[in-house]
Amino acid sequence: MWASERFRNLVSQLALVALIVAVAGYAAHNLVHNLESRSITIGFSYLSQEAGFDISEKLLEYDPTHSYGRAFVVGLLNTLFVSAVAIVAASVLGLAIGIARLSPNWLLAKLAGMYIESVRNVPLILQLLLWYGVITDVLPSAASPPHRAGVPEPARPQPSVARGPRRLVRGAAGLAVAFVATLLWWRRSARIQRQQGRAPAVVWPGIALFLAMPAIGWALFGAPTGISMPVLGGFDFEGGKNVSPEFTALFLGLSIYTAAFIAEIVRGGIQAVPKGQTEASEALGLSRGSACAWSSSPRRCA
Q1: With contact defined as beta carbons under 8 Å apart, do 66 and 51 qualify?
Q2: Which of 13, 85, 95, 243 is the most exposed place for a label (fewest CB within 10 A)?
């Protein structure tokens, strides 16, 4: 048996697995022994203990008396929320800058190129610190009256909604219905494509469903009707929605930094379309705008 190469390979692999398991077991035993000798407990029981700290931005009701588990959920929702809004903003900004870099306007193309090269080569952490410093040190404080700050205080209406997990359930239910409806519409479109050779649009109805269904669900289950407007009372504004400097700096930093990479992806995607595709679109009688949308040389469309 030992003369068989397959058997030797199997034995060597089993020996390696046994060695890895032994090392991992020794490390785990050593960790548990050291923690117990210092009266340090391990596990997830701490998640039910009182957190004792506050979180400025929260989509759910939270105060320092809540548990660590509640704090973890609030932080996770904050991460998902800032990621979602930053993705939308970065996509729109990156698309505009990517197209601007291919513009026949020399100044516009150079400005877009300077933006991309400068933003991409600066670490994200430095940009976040820069935006945080600008917001906290350069811009006037919201607590300052408008006549002292030198700029008018923008109105920040905030719907007077009841916080709670029901808002998340409504939104999640609407998104789930939109996903199922979009999937069914896509399957119907594919069937029509096979039968008639031309399929109805799928992208725009899908986008409309993902925008409309959460709003419809919100309205059916009791949408808020009151609007809380900010009013200057004493030394600070009352009402409205306060956006923390940390959230604003994180949103601006992520959006502006990621938009530079999206712009390069957009530019590369446009230039990857062969020149013959543009000539073919013109030969088919497409409009100038439709032909330029697929052109690898947008300057020809100026």
Answers
A1: yes
A2: 13
pLDDT tens, N- to C-terminus, the chain (302 residues): 777 888 888 999 999 999 999 999 999 999 988 988 888 877 788 888 888 888 888 888 888 888 898 899 998 988 998 999 999 999 999 999 999 998 889 999 999 999 999 999 999 999 999 988 888 887 666 555 444 444 444 444 444 444 445 555 666 677 788 888 888 888 888 888 778 777 777 778 888 887 787 777 666 665 555 566 666 666 666 666 677 888 889 999 999 999 999 999 999 988 887 777 777 777 777 665 556 554 544 444 54
- Angle between helix axes 68-101 and 245-271 (nearest 10 degrees) is 40
- What is the rounded CA–CA span in Å between residue 31 and residue 38? 11
**Confidence (pTM):** 0.60
Round to whole Å and give the CA distance between 246 and 244. 5
**Reduced 3-state DSSP string for 235-290:** CEEECCCCCCHHHHHHHHHHHHHHHHHHHHHHHHHHHCCCHHHHHHHHHCCCCHHH
Separation CA 302–CA 291 (nearest Å): 12
| Sign of the alpha-carbon dihedral angle for 111, 113, 116, 119 | negative
DSSP three-state, residue 78: helix
